[in-house]
């Protein structure tokens, strides 16, 4: 039994090698696993606080669980935190998944509020095996085969390598009390079906199935580590930040040269919130639908002629495509800065792709700052005759994402004074006779 304690604590120390007495939040449901975990950490005199989630899914039984954990914490003179949740099942998520998300969100909030350096949960080896099998049945990559990670940031799982049978034996030996969640004994949930139906069946083929599978997961974890290192190098080599678009570029030629497939593509774009199904769709669209856009929660991906372009969606506070500005300058809002400066204050007139310099005396007010539209024309500085803005941007080989995010300045008389970030109109350019310069700059809304 001493071996169980040492395995738990030694593994914790290996996961947190720099631990020096920081506060720890221990998640305790009242079940056997979490009660053993809390018992061990208390026995080794770690500065722990007990945290209990009451999801109210079993009504009176849920309240009894909470009271049981609270009394145990009080008896052992440990700080106790509890939160009640109203679990509402959302589309595409099971009740268990929703509860899990609520649980971890609360733990993280408490950690931030009360200065807990680590959050300890009581997941064990059998839990990890069940997770691996669930992922395999649903369909997964190598990472999904590895089960539950022993550490995820500040979330630590010191018993994830300890079999359930060993935990049960330790609880009986130490006379630790716990409460049994009767729903864990049913086959209502898929995890329970794996626990009570699939694993017993697999044990008929191999009585040592759990030990063998645990060893397989250890092998897969090492393979996954090598795979992830390889993917990290590939991301560094293929995904490049481009200041011009305020986002990232992936060269299709380089991608094809590395042997494009959906798995590699998914690894490259997952960091921007795109899922595996979208990776499959994007893989097809590369060959068949150039110009197609895909959206994640906070990024837009566009397939251009030679590149995959990815950038953050615009700041949600900037919802309008048009700003009306009078001559009461300087002007500043969440998206723009506009000011008038005399020539002697100007040291550099080389505009970047978020600004433009115009002749203030040529402007009629109020002006509009808006996205360009099909049919818009102007006379680019240094040229004669008008040119469509669409053709002007195409001649400059501006990619689609950047083209769609291009803004123009329009005077009160409907004349376009310039394309921001590219060129002023010939009639609004700065000359030797310009007394004041109008400077319009778009604030960075990316990263």
Structural summary, described in words:
With 447 residues, the protein is an alpha+beta fold. It has three domains: 220 residues, HUPs (Rossmann fold, 3-Layer(aba) Sandwich), CATH 3.40.50; 70 residues, no CATH class; 121 residues, Phenylalanyl-trna Synthetase, Chain B, domain 3 (Phenylalanyl-tRNA Synthetase, Chain B, domain 3, 3-Layer(bba) Sandwich). The chain contains 14 helices and 22 strands. The strands form five sheets. Strands 3-2-1-4-6-5 form a six-stranded mixed β-sheet, with helices on both faces. A hairpin with a 5-residue loop joins strand 19 and strand 20. The longest helix is centred in the middle third of the chain and has 30 residues.
Please provide a brief summary of the model.
The protein has 447 residues and is an alpha+beta fold.
Features:
447 residues; Rossmann fold; Phenylalanyl-tRNA Synthetase, Chain B, domain 3; 3 domains; 6-stranded mixed beta sheet; 5-stranded antiparallel beta sheet; 14 helices
């Amino acid at each position: 039994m001493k071996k169980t304690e040492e395995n738990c604590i030694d593994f914790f120390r290996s996961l947190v090698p720099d631990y020096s007495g920081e506060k720890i939040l221990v998640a305790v449901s009242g079940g056997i696993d979490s009660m053993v975990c809390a018992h061990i950490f208390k026995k080794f005199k770690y500065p722990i606080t007990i945290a209990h989630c009451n999801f109210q899914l079993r009504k009176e039984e849920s309240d009894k669980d909470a009271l049981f954990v609270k009394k145990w914490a009080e008896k052992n003179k440990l700080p106790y935190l509890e939160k009640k949740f109203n679990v509402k099942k959302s589309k595409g998520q099971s009740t268990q998944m929703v509860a899990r998300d609520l649980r971890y969100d609360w733990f993280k909030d408490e950690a931030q509020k009360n200065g807990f350096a680590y959050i300890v949960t009581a997941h064990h080896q059998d839990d990890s095996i069940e997770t691996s099998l669930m992922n395999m049945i649903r369909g997964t990559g190598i990472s999904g085969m590895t089960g539950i990670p022993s550490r995820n940031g500040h979330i630590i799982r010191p018993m994830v390598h300890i079999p359930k049978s060993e935990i049960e034996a330790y609880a009986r030996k130490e006379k630790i009390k716990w409460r049994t969640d009767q729903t864990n004994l049913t086959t209502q949930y898929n995890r329970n079906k794996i626990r009570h139906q699939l694993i017993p069946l697999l044990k008929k083929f191999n009585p040592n199935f759990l030990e063998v599978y645990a060893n397989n997961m250890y092998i897969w974890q090492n393979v996954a580590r090598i795979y992830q290192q390889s993917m990290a190098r590939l991301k560094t080599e293929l995904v490049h930040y481009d200041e011009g678009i305020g986002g990232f570029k992936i060269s299709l030629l380089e991608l094809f040269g590395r042997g494009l497939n959906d798995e590699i593509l998914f690894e490259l774009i997952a960091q921007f919130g795109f899922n595996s199904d979208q990776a499959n769709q994007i893989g097809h669209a590369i060959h068949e639908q150039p110009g197609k856009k895909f959206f994640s929660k906070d990024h837009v991906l566009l397939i251009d002629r030679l590149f995959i372009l990815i950038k953050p969606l615009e700041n949600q506070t900037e919802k309008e495509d048009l700003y009306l500005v009078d001559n009461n300058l300087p002007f500043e809002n969440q998206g723009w800065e506009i000011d008038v400066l005399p020539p002697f204050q100007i040291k550099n007139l080389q505009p970047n792709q978020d600004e433009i310099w115009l002749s203030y005396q040529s402007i009629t007010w109020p002006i509009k700052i808006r996205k360009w539209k099909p049919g818009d024309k102007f006379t680019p500085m240094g040229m004669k005759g008008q040119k469509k803005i669409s053709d002007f941007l195409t001649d400059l080989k501006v990619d689609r994402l950047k083209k769609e995010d291009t803004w123009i300045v329009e005077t009160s008389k409907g004349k376009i004074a310039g394309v921001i970030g590219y060129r002023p109109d010939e009639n609004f350019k700065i000359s030797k006779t310009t007394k004041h310069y109008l400077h319009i700059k778009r604030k960075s809304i990316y990263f």
